[in-house]
Amino acid sequence: MHIEKDLVWTHYIAETDTIDKEKCGKWMSFFGGDLDKIFFVEDVCKEAVERGIVEQAKHTSSTHYIVKGEGVMCFYVNGDDNDGHRRIISYFLEKGLIPKTKAGKFYNISFKYDKQTLDNEYGSDFSSDIKLNQFIDLYTGKWLKH
After folding, report:
1. Which residues in the chain show pLDDT less than 70?
2. C-alpha span between 138 and 136 (Å, rounded)
């Protein structure tokens, strides 16, 4: 694995890389407001690549964004890689990276294709075909049968 840093991102990239730029996207987990979390975030992204959960991960490394509460971790997989989605979701559940509502239900987070990001699809302009509720029961966290 090698690590690349720039002004905004820290990237973790496996030696093998089968990510297809045409099909690639990411599951995201947001954090921020607490600079101590950056050490947890670094460990989580690095571990995800080291354990083979993903071949690429990155996180916001600029303290400007983190202090504003805008930190994000991204875990990359090809959109058609169902096993890859399951590995990432399992890892998110293991690490407590999926937020819950006040009632204890998991938020129905979405997978986002890189093309959607490049096309500036954010907020109400963003719609995903791949969501957490296609994999787990949002109330129990148990895997759905496929």
Report:
1. 33-38, 63-67, 69, 146
2. 6
Q: Which of 100, 116, 119, 117 is nearest to 108 (CA)?
A: 100
Report the chain's mean pLDDT, rounded to a whole number: 90
What is the 3-class SS of the chain, one letter each residue? CEEEECCCEEEEECCCCCCCCCCEEEEEEEECCCCCHHHHHHHHHHHHHHCCCCCEEEEECCHHHHHCCCEEEEEEEECCCHHHHHHHHHHHHHHCCCCECCCCCECCCEEEEHHHHHCCCCHHHCCCCCEHHHCECCCCCCECCC
Contacts of 51 (CB under 8 A, 6+ apart): 91
pTM: 0.90
**Nearest Cα to Cα of residue 95 among 27, 144, 145:** 27
pLDDT of residue 138: 98
